[in-house]
Inverse folding.
């Protein structure tokens, strides 16, 4: 009875040892397999490097083209200008003004100086019609006045070789002949304060100041 029990105990011990060894082997095998799976999952050689957005030439930000100002249509503003009336056209034309203000010449010397009045008259032609190189003025003319000759009323003057009609642009100057150096002008007809235009008499008046 004792020997049989000893054999039974021995058999049970061997069976338990075998089961324990088998369990240990299974656990060890499972652990090894788990380690290999984990290592392969995080293996750097198997991982693809992340690409930086800035290193990819296709991913480089490009400036957004702004709309060109040349493509923006510019609104066209049309302004209607009323035509000039006949009266406005006549008064705004320099040639018409010159024709209307042509007149005889009156000179007065109320001063105490003997005076010479000189005239440089423009040719009675339209601007730009005089040939190049030729003078645009008539030969100069002059008149001599004694002290107080003509007074404040003035005297009409003329020329022996042509009709005298003062007009816009003619140049006048007066100077004393006694060596005092006194002079008047120069004056440009219809552009300076003197001579004065007398519309009623149709004449230009130059009355020298004392």
């Amino acid at each position: 009875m004792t020997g049989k029990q000893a054999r039974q105990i021995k058999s049970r011990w061997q069976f338990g040892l075998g089961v324990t060894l088998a369990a240990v082997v299974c656990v060890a095998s499972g652990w090894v397999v788990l380690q290999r799976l984990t290592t392969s999952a995080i293996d750097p050689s198997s991982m693809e490097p992340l690409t930086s957005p800035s290193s990819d030439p296709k991913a480089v930000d490009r400036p957004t083209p702004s709309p060109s100002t040349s493509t923006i249509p510019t609104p066209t503003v049309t302004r209607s200008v009323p035509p000039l009336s006949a009266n406005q056209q006549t008064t705004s034309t320099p040639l018409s003004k010159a024709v209307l203000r042509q007149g005889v010449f009156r000179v007065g010397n109320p001063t105490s100086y003997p005076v010479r009045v000189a005239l440089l008259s423009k040719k009675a032609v339209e601007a730009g019609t005089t040939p190049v190189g030729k003078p645009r003025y008539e030969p100069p003319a002059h008149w001599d006045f004694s002290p107080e000759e003509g007074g404040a009323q003035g005297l009409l003057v003329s020329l022996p070789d042509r009709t005298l009609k003062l007009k816009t642009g003619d140049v006048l100057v007066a100077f004393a002949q006694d060596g005092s150096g006194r002079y008047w002008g120069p004056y440009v007809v219809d552009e300076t304060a003197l001579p004065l235009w007398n519309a009623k008499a149709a004449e230009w008046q130059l009355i020298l100041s004392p």
